[in-house]
Amino acid sequence: MPKTCVPVLQKTQSDENYVEGIVCKTDEIRENEMKSLDLGEGKILLVKQNGKLSAIGAKCTHYGAPLSTGALGNGRVRCPWHGACFNITTGDIEDFPGF
Ligand code: FES
User: Is the pTM of this model over 0.70?
Assistant: First the structure.
């Protein structure tokens, strides 16, 4: 694998199963940028913050809003539709939607 590529491991239903793929070159994403990229078996949201790359699901678990159009905060992305917040490292929901 060329050094400039970003490998992504995506958790599936079981913790032992991962999907791995190359989604872009490291110089194709800037600091504090979010990109929705196709991993073959679905889209991921690739985020670069503090020089570290993270990948979580590209769609909000509430009603499926594209998280790439949300707001990136310190370690979290806020859904653009109803405001749920997701940890960019784990993908865990940290703030629930506000209707
Ligand atoms: S679709 Fe994301 S909080 Fe509702």
Answer: yes
